[in-house]
Structures are given as C-alpha cells and as structure tokens.
Amino acid sequence: xRLVIVLLGAIWGIIAxxxxxxxxxxxxxxxxxxxxxxxxxxxxxTQAGWTAYTEERxxxxxxxxxxxxxxxxxIWLPELELLPDETMIDVVEDIAAQLQxxxxxxxxxxxxxxxxxxxxxYFTLNNxxxxxxxxxxxxxxxxxxxxxxxxxxxxxxxxRGTLQTLFSEFTVNEVLLGSDIFSTMPDIIxxxxxxxxxxxxxxxxxxxx
Length: 209
Fold this sequence. Notes:
Elements: H1 2-16, E1 32-37, E2 40-45, E3 50-55, E4 58-63, E5 72-76, H2 88-100, E6 106-107, E7 111-115, E8 118-126, E9 131-140, E10 143-152, H3 153-156, H4 160-166, E11 171-172, E12 175-176, H5 180-183, H6 196-203
Antiparallel strand pairs: 1-2, 2-11, 3-4, 4-5, 5-10, 6-8, 7-8, 8-9, 9-10, 11-12
C-alpha cells in the first residue's frame, strides 16, 4: 500500500504542474540526457527541437519545435522498492482504480505488456484541462521507471511516431529498452471520454484554501 500511495502522489503532482525552473537545460538539437540516482542510470538522446532538464529524480522533456503537439514528458524514479508480496502490475492496478473514482478524470483500461522483455504497464487519462496523459511504468531488474507523457487531446492520439523516435536509444543501467513498446501501441492512441456531468459535480466541490 505504501508504494501505491507514493506513486499515486507522484502522478498527481506531475499531472498538476511542470516545474519552470530547470537546473540542466539542453540545446534544442539532438543531445544526450543522463539521470543517475543511487544505482540507477538512465540515458538517451533527445531529438532536434526538444529541450530537457533534470530535477533530483526527474527528467522533464518538452517539444518546443512543434507547438501543435505541445508534448511534455516526465520520467521519474520512485524512491522505494516493491514489497515481497507486491507486483508492479498489482500496484498500478490499485493506482488506476483510485484515479477512476476522480470525477474530473477519465481513465482507460490498464494495458499490461513488456518493454524489451521487461514487465511494463500503461494507461491513459483525460483530465479537465483538455489534455491527455499516458502513465507508463516499467520494471527493469531492481529499477522502477515511470513516465507521464502528456499532450493536448486533439494531437495526443497521433503521438506514437514521435515517441518511437524519441526513445529509440533509451537505456536503464546499460540495458537497451529502445522504443519497441510504442510500436506495439495502436496507430491512434485511444483517449478515454470524460463524463461531463461527473466533471461538473466535481468542479462544484469547494477547493482547499
């Protein structure tokens, strides 16, 4: 349960905002990106037109060359391990079930798959600001790597090709994951439909000060 709470909190935080104070900014050309936390190393190359920066356990990517997509990608490393009786799939199923109870968010079915022979799972969210987010989590040996890939609804469904190119050289602890997982996704990524009445009910609740 602790893993569910921490991952759910991380997902909520990243959905809510993206930091505007980068500590490491790449040039808008193809550039290497590296994140090292304890014994986990993430490496890949951005593509021309993308910028990237790192903050603690997080990498943030944005596509500045194509304003029609306005993709923002967060890659982060949760600071914990699975308990002996937990599997990654169980944890993500619990997270998705809790998000389904939120009136402002529509959640797709969970898709379990593999990323270059490593256990992976993903689902999509459609929230109140007309943006879709894909939550993708992969388990590579002892490392859990989570992704939040978000974009405007009108363009997100066609983001698969962009993701295949961007992550073609993605490695975790020198294990090449590549971008094969995105080639197994549908050509048009399904965006879950929000319930307008449920969203209206949620918006009428008093907000926290």
